[in-house]
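F.,

This is the one I mentioned.
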């Protein structure tokens, strides 16, 4: 993805999504700290809470991936290290996105 204007716009969109979700997550984390185990499980089995958490984590992973790629593009001059870094960032972020999807689906559907 060499279109820097698209990357810039996508990074701003993910940041805009993360702002309200971060406030929701902070409030939820404070609430979760006072909950018992069963209440915590019920919190994540709620479709609204699990959906908000899923969107927040996906936006965060995509935002971090774009930021790391920008740093690599700007500061890494060795082609070998550049390619290895890009590959590592892509592998890590996509693996985490897939695992996140699996865990959210497992929690929301199979434990309902």
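My design for it:
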């Amino acid at each position: 993805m060499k279109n820097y204007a698209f990357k810039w716009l996508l990074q701003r969109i993910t940041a805009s999504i993360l702002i309200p979700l971060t406030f929701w997550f902070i409030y939820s984390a404070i609430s979760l700290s006072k909950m018992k185990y069963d209440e915590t499980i019920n919190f994540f089995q709620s479709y609204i809470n699990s959906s908000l958490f899923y969107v927040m984590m996906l936006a965060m992973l995509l935002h971090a991936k774009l930021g790391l790629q920008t740093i690599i593009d700007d500061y890494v001059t060795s082609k070998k290290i550049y390619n290895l870094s890009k590959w590592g960032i892509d592998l890590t972020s996509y693996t985490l996105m897939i695992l996140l999807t699996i865990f959210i689906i497992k929690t929301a559907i199979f434990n309902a």
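The chain has a mean pLDDT of 92.

Talk soon.
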